[in-house]
Amino acid sequence: MRAGDLTTPALMADVGVLDHNVAAMSAQRPGSALRPHVKAFKCTALAGVLADAGHTGFCCATVREVEGMAAAGLGDDLLLANEVLDTRRLGALVASGAARVTVAVDSPETIAATAAGGVREVLVDVDVGMPRCGCDPADAGRLADDARAVGLSVRGVMGYEGHLMHDPKADRRADAVAEAMEVLAGAHGEVGGDVVSGGGTGSWDCNHLVTELQAGSYVLMDGAYARLGLPFREGLVLLTTAVSVSARGWAALDGGLKALAMDSGNPVLVGDGDVLVCSDEHTIVTGSFTVGERVGLRPAHIDPTIAKHDTLHLVDDVSAGADADVLESWPVDLRGW
Amino acid sequence: MRAGDLTTPALMADVGVLDHNVAAMSAQRPGSALRPHVKAFKCTALAGVLADAGHTGFCCATVREVEGMAAAGLGDDLLLANEVLDTRRLGALVASGAARVTVAVDSPETIAATAAGGVREVLVDVDVGMPRCGCDPADAGRLADDARAVGLSVRGVMGYEGHLMHDPKADRRADAVAEAMEVLAGAHGEVGGDVVSGGGTGSWDCNHLVTELQAGSYVLMDGAYARLGLPFREGLVLLTTAVSVSARGWAALDGGLKALAMDSGNPVLVGDGDVLVCSDEHTIVTGSFTVGERVGLRPAHIDPTIAKHDTLHLVDDVSAGADADVLESWPVDLRGW
Questions:
Q1: Domain with residues B3-11+232-331, CATH architecture
Q2: pTM for the structure as a whole
Q3: Which of A15, A27, A279, B115 is the 20 to 30 Å CA partner of B235?
Q4: pLDDT tens sequence across A293-326
């Protein structure tokens, strides 16, 4: 099938870009040195590509992601890198034997909920400077003791330096990451265990502490990350149709902010022209278009863009637009909570 | 069921607010004087409430919405207020007899596609000043002739003055709407037919031209519209759980920008405190919270927020948070394309 036969708006991923990005990351972070974050793409078929590349432990952000990965047979080692108070569904999953589940804890309440729900393994989540979850580093050892006291296995620590990922100056980024990871290393000394989990696409080559990198966006790349000069390429395009062309100098494309995440700004047009505005159902662009023409848009932020779609179409070449060959159509099956 | 028993994040609508808003709009625009826009809520159960209030013609933005409304038995008179080139699914719906379908056209190409696909009724979509779809007003009569020449029934015109909806000065808003509607009235004179469709929540009482108002957001209200002093109240709240509380002065709630549309800005906290940032999975807020506490967030823009959820929970009082009673759980069944 050609991409031109798809109902628009349709979300397309470039197989060549995906393969390149997976190989580039695997060269730096082979096997278990990478714990790919499925929140970036919410798609077990894409996760399967990463498992085939040797990365069989995964990072999740939601209970739904953990459940879906287990159901897809990808439950060897699932880390829910988030705090959860309602652990009933996770506990049921552990009891079923369908997955190994580890969850982040950062408080007496999350430790109690984890133990009560029947989850047996945890990481202590440490605040390394980002306004997010994570305990005071000084409390990490005590929380680990508390967790062990109620029968939990403490595998180690995690700390996410997401606030440092987008600094365009590589040296400065590396220095800031190193400083944040000193905090995590100190906490790890108090907590013990053999796992130090953290990092992401922006610190892929400068986070020298973590035993496993929690990167996800690199597979298809955000616009913001693409400006850092990393070796990963942008491979996600929303294919739209120009449904109206005005002599006043614009065209209306049939995909708007319900199909494109807008938290990191407007998408970028594939080809000549500029994006004027995204409304609920349309993106208004300048440039020369004919009614019915297929037009591509590169979203600024891939994670929440993919989460707006029920299907991700793998194509041979996103830049070919309507002429691209659709190789596979993958369900985005990890949406929701 | 109590709202506190829902998996968070969970989207809740207030039944009292909904009933108030529906009644206030129906008093001004009874029966067919209102053509509610289902794009605002993408939920046939909520559309059924509006049909029960006497509004049995609906406005849709996507083919999927038209199909879903027909399948729910709400297909008496469905207007797809958007241009479509691939009209095969709409034509099949017309052929099945499941719905009366009217579609917007604004070019020779959309007229040809509509006729070829088997849709028989159209409105001529006229540019009334907003960068969007719509023909040059001077071309409207000729396009109507072209449509009739290929066997289409031209029911009238539509023109959407969405760029004028958010002016906080009511007088200025009314003057601008009147000016835009003069353009539409002129085009209507050339086109003929008995339908003049347009307007929205922001022009609910100052658009004196349209025979049917295309309002949708009023049912649960956007933050932006709420600042206009309209008689409609805000009734949509995302219920979250505080999963982490930091001594550094913030709490992390378990709903972020995958659960909240961000195109119109940050959500607003229900209760005391401020939103610092929304990330993919978390909203970070200031204020006094305990781990496990349920916390509500009012989204800035309801249309794309609801489109991120598969369920909308109708509750007796959104401000009651975890203590609200869940009256019904409605599938958001018109998502996708």
A1: Beta Barrel (2.40)
A2: 0.97
A3: A279
A4: 999 999 999 999 999 999 999 999 999 999 999 9
